[in-house]
Amino acid sequence: MLVVIATARAQAGKEQQLGEVLKKFVAPTRNESGCIQYDLHVDNSDPAAFAFYERWVDEAALDAHLKTPHITAGFAAMASLVDGPATIGQYTLVE
Questions:
Q1: Is 37 left (phi over 0), alpha (psi -120 to 50) or beta?
Q2: Less CB within 10 Å around the terminal CB: N or C of the chain?
Q3: 3 state SS for 13-52
Q4: Are 32 and 65 in contact (CB under 8 A)?
Q5: 41-79 confidence digits (pLDDT tens)
Q6: Cβ–Cβ under 8 Å, residues 6 and 85
């Protein structure tokens, strides 16, 4: 299993717009093959900071996800809304 923590920060005044773009990722992603969990969060003390907590069966499933039309279109829509680059960290469970 692969865990992903992805973050994005909205430009000042664009928090709601970025949140709307990111929300559009959730439903279609949860229906993707290989997706175990896909949740969007916003920081309780900083409404500009968003994070996804994701669990995938393997890296191939994540790679396929990153090539889907809803993600590629969403990344394009995010470009004018984010303050700096988004981060995508990949983690493996330590047992």
A1: beta
A2: C
A3: CCHHHHHHHHHHHHHHHHCCCCEEEEEEEEECCEEEEEEE
A4: yes
A5: 999 999 999 999 999 999 999 999 999 999 999 999 999
A6: no
Q: Which amino acid is at 4?
A: V
Question: Any idea what DSSP says for residue 67?
Answer: T
Identify the pLDDT of residue 75.
95
pLDDT at residue number 30: 98
Q: To 10 degrees, what angle do helices 69-78 and 15-30 make? A: 170
Share the mean pLDDT of the chain. Answer: 97
CA neighbor of 37 nearest in space, from 12, 55, 20 = 55
- The neighbour count for residue 21, using CB atoms within 10 Å, is 20
Q: What structural domains and CATH numbers belong to the chain? A: 2-92 (3.30.70.100)
